[in-house]
């Protein structure tokens, strides 16, 4: 599968103020083969680029907690976004919306490689499955999910990051 690398210059510039952040790169396997990376009422290409940039920005933000001289490379192997796409019908047209419920949980498959300044591998793993069955419904995640379309997926990444790099837990 061909992996494409997002421009780190754009993402890195968002975090230029971070004094001790590892170099982070995000790669993508073939998005067309992903389980659910479906646009809803938006051009597919625009949705893909925006969503990939949102994921890359979040992973870079998590990387701010790692030592500056280290490098973290994360590859997204599969994505199944939270919810399912359902049609809606109006008086004159039809549209689609993503419905969140307790059976349409997010699912991510990632690989990563974490190295020190000399290039020594500190940790790595291939095809880690991240999933959350029926995320709890409380006011915090309901409000958060309405403000961020990747709220539940970012929770999975944050949990993986805390478990993989426990020394960075804040």
Could you give the topology of this structure?
Blueprint: E1 4-5, H1 8-14, E2 23-28, H2 44-63, E3 71-80, E4 84-89, E5 94-99, E6 107-115, E7 121-131, H3 139-147, H4 151-164
Parallel strand pairs: 2-3
Antiparallel strand pairs: 1-2, 3-6, 4-5, 6-7
Give an overview of the whole structure:
- By secondary structure, this protein is of the alpha+beta class.
- The chain has one domain.
- The protein contains four helices and seven strands; from the N terminus they run βαβαβββββαα.
- The strands form two sheets. Strands 1-2-3-6-7 form a five-stranded mixed beta sheet, with helices on one face. Strands 4-5 form a two-stranded antiparallel ribbon.
- Helix 2 packs parallel to helix 4.
- The N terminus is likely disordered.
How would you describe this structure in keywords?
170 residues, alpha+beta, 5-stranded mixed sheet, two-stranded antiparallel ribbon, 4 helices, 29% helix, elongated, disordered N terminus, DUF3016, DUF3016 family protein, signal
Distance between the termini: 36 Å
Uncertain parts: 1-18
What series of H and E elements makes up the topology? EHEHEEEEEHH
Approximate helicity band: 25-40%
If strands are numbered along the chain, what order do they take across the biggest sheet?
1-2-3-6-7
**Into how many domains do the coordinates divide?**
1
Please give the number of β-strands: 7
Rounded to an integer in angstroms, the radius of gyration calculated over CA atoms is: 17 Å
* Average pLDDT, all residues: 81
What is the overall shape? Answer: elongated
Taken as a percent bin, the fraction of beta residues is 25-35%
**Largest sheet features:** 5 strands, mixed
Helix segment count? Answer: 4
Structural class: alpha+beta
Protein name: DUF3016 family protein
Signal peptide: 1-21
Pfam family, one: DUF3016
Keywords: Signal
